[in-house]
Design brief:
Blueprint lengths: L15 E4 L15 H5 L2 H7 L3 E4 L27 H13 L3 E6 L9 H8 L11 E2 L26 E4 L4 E4 L14 H16 L4 E4 L26 H4 L5 H13 L7 E5 L5 H8 L8 E3 L8 E2 L2 E5 L4 H14 L7 E2 L9 H4 L8 H13 L4 E5 L20 H12 L4 H11 L36 H5 L5 H14 L1 H5 L1 E5 L6 E8 L2 E8 L5 E2 L6 E2 L4 E5 L12 E2 L4 E7 H7 L3 E2 L15 H8 L4 H6 L1
Parallel strand pairs: 1-2, 1-13, 2-3, 3-7, 7-8, 8-9, 12-13
Antiparallel strand pairs: 4-6, 5-6, 10-11, 14-15, 15-16, 16-21, 17-20, 18-22, 19-21
The structure holds alpha-D-glucopyranose.
């Protein structure tokens, strides 16, 4: 799609920052982060240059799943503050030119939600059909092993059905037992959810991140999956992921809620098991569904099928090839989101980079460079901009997340030793993303509580935000420059994408092109020097280094060699490169001096004007 820089929606050149409020800042010292804590760190977000904040749920909740178990869609849990605090946050963000994207959980509620409490009370209750109730399997009594209406496994392990004695029936929950699925087939459910979303828009939110939204249409009738795994359960996901009415439901939501907003919102649908081809249908603007989706494909490459904790080696060609396929599939229609981490994933630098002290900073910058130079909307997860690594959890009882604690039980039934389970959780637990953000080197990391709900990283002083702010070569400043680059250069936001050397095991390289502007991005995803000669990368004459990730004190490689985890963004002149048909190969000296330490201020100043009306008229 030739998106025109003049008319492309704001989110094509914006970067979004995710706040997981439990772990961001603790305003009242009770050990859990809160809205006051978010308000206290808006300078950080503004300086980073992000245009929007995605706020993970703050609704009243029993907190069995970190607040993704919602007991009231239109309030704020006292743990996080008050509705007035949330209004204040929205106003404060707007005052700084930033937007608030609300996380909405529309597939399920908490079992504490009044809708569910009414629903379970009696078969005659008007709310009965709001959830998925089914009698026990014929020939079984409720609660007996095997009596579940279908053999499905839930996403957190264990059966996807729980027997409720009051209702004398089973209810479906694709996640924790405390998260019953809403029945979107029943029109009053959709009406109530849409009304709630309109209420939030009227309060000033600028868009929605829709939790597991492609699970809301189930393939009917609900029925057994053909195969059973070692836990005796079947894989029911194909019956619920992107089901038969999903497009209809999303179009209805768009029509009933988003269309009336009168402003350009950002909507991103978290979608399990979605293919790039399906993503085109979800994000094609003409279909009016969502603006972009969160795919899981690239974050499930390093695991055995069906067991995210069974970690497998991840060859670079597979990772970059997956991102490249999504770039290609959504090049003409639709739009990509770009992310390496969020509150459900381990820390990006530990997973895809190298978190040993010698390489943590540089590999964090290299990964960010590569990701942010793709086409799409980048999402930065809190702490990622500091290069935060995974937490070294010392024992199984240190984990709090329901997915991890369920896994401990399941893995023991497989006969795994506790050490083996600990190694798996230390690679993949969601708790890695949920330890407090370190703002300072103080013992409490500036988080605001003596004993936070999850411990601070023991090395937090080495990557605390305040020291990084004072250091122009920190990971933090590198993110700031990447975010500025996207805003400044239309080729970063909108240019076409072409992978280079797709089979290379250590080199991540690609080109971006928009009209006469072209960028070459190269990154060495290993700790050993990487000569470019023979890789297929050609650095044309006149290439100018826009951004690199070495420090001034780091010994630069020669022009044709990338140092360990070195990444470069080079501006090449597309016309000239093509006309001449040749350039330097990596091992020849280039004509233009390539400053190995970046200073983007000039680029941003000149480039930034390109989006203004005057500049457009001049061109
Ligand atoms: C999404 C959320 C995750 C939550 C799940 C169930 O995947 O990101 O944190 O556990 O949905 O709501």
């Amino acid at each position: 799609m030739a998106l025109d820089p003049a008319t492309a929606p704001w989110w094509t050149r914006a970067t979004v920052y995710q706040v997981y409020p439990r772990s961001f800042g603790d305003g009242d010292g009770d050990g859990v982060g809160d809205l006051r804590g978010v308000l206290a760190h808006l300078d950080h977000l503004e300086a980073l240059g992000v245009e929007a904040v995605w706020l993970s749920p703050v609704y009243p909740s029993p907190m069995r799943d970190g607040g993704y178990d919602v007991a009231d869609y239109q309030g704020v849990d006292p743990l996080f503050g008050t509705l007035a605090d949330l209004d204040a946050l929205i106003a404060a963000l707007h005052a700084r030119g930033m937007k608030l994207i609300l996380d909405v959980v529309l597939n399920h509620t908490s079992d504490a939600h009044p809708w569910f409490q009414a629903s379970r009370r009696s078969p005659d209750d008007p709310k009965r059909d709001w959830y998925w109730w089914r009698p026990p399997r014929p020939g079984f009594r409720g609660g007996e092993p095997g009596a579940e209406p279908t053999n499905w496994r839930g996403y957190f392990g264990g059966p996807a059905w729980t027997y409720d004695a009051t209702a004398d029936a089973y209810y479906l929950h694709l996640f924790d037992t405390s998260q019953p699925d809403l029945n979107w087939e029943h029109p009053p459910v959709r009406r109530a959810l849409f009304e709630m979303l309109r209420w939030w828009l009227a309060r000033g939110v600028d868009g929605f991140r829709m939790d597991v939204i492609n699970l809301v249409s189930k393939d009917l009738p609900l029925r057994d999956a053909p195969d059973r795994g070692p836990d005796g359960l079947g894989n029911g996901f194909p019956f619920v992921e992107s089901g038969p009415r999903i497009h209809e439901f999303l179009q209805e939501l768009h029509r009933e809620v988003l269309g009336s907003a009168g402003t350009v919102l950002l909507t991103v649908g978290e979608m399990l098991g979605v293919t790039p081809e399906q993503a085109v249908a979800f994000t094609d603007p003409e279909r009016r569904e969502v603006d972009m989706v969160f795919t899981f494909e690239h974050v499930t490459l390093d695991q055995a099928p069906g067991d995210k904790f069974d970690v497998r080696p991840l060859p670079l060609p597979l990772l970059k090839g997956t991102l490249a396929r999504w770039q290609e599939a959504l090049a003409d229609r639709g739009w990509n989101s770009l992310y390496l981490g969020n509150h459900d994933q381990p820390r990006a630098v530990s997973r895809f980079g190298d978190d040993r002290p010698a390489w943590r900073e540089r590999s964090a910058k290299a990964l960010a460079t590569v990701l942010h130079l793709h086409r799409g909307t980048p999402f930065v997860y809190q702490g990622e901009e500091l290069g935060m690594p995974n937490h070294p959890f010392a024992s199984l009882d240190a984990f709090q997340d329901v997915e991890s604690t369920n896994y401990v039980r399941f893995a023991r039934t497989l006969g795994l030793s506790d050490d083996a389970i600990l190694a798996r959780l230390n690679a993949k637990s969601r708790d890695h993303a949920r330890t407090p953000v370190p703002w300072t080197a103080a013992p409490d990391g500036g988080f605001g509580s003596a004993t936070p709900w999850l411990p601070l990283h023991p090395d937090h002083a080495t990557f605390a935000a305040d020291a990084q702010r004072a250091d122009p070569h920190s990971v933090l400043h590198h993110y700031r420059r990447l975010i500025a680059l996207r805003r400044a250069l239309p080729v970063v936001a909108l240019g076409g994408f072409r992978p280079i050397a797709p089979d290379h095991e250590r080199l991540w390289a690609f080109e971006r092109r928009l009209g006469d502007e072209a960028l070459l991005v190269v990154a060495n995803c290993s700790d050993a020097d990487l000569p470019l000669a023979g890789t297929g990368v050609t650095v044309p004459y006149g290439a100018e280094l826009l951004l690199g990730n070495l420090r001034p004190e780091d010994a630069p490689g020669d022009r044709g060699t990338l140092r360990g985890w070195e990444a470069r963004v080079l501006r090449i002149e597309a016309g000239r490169d093509r006309a001449q048909g040749e350039g330097t190969t990596g091992d020849e000296p280039a004509r233009t001096a390539m400053p190995l330490v970046d200073d983007l201020r000039r680029t941003v100043r000149t480039g930034g004007r390109r989006f203004t009306r005057d500049e457009r008229n001049e061109r």
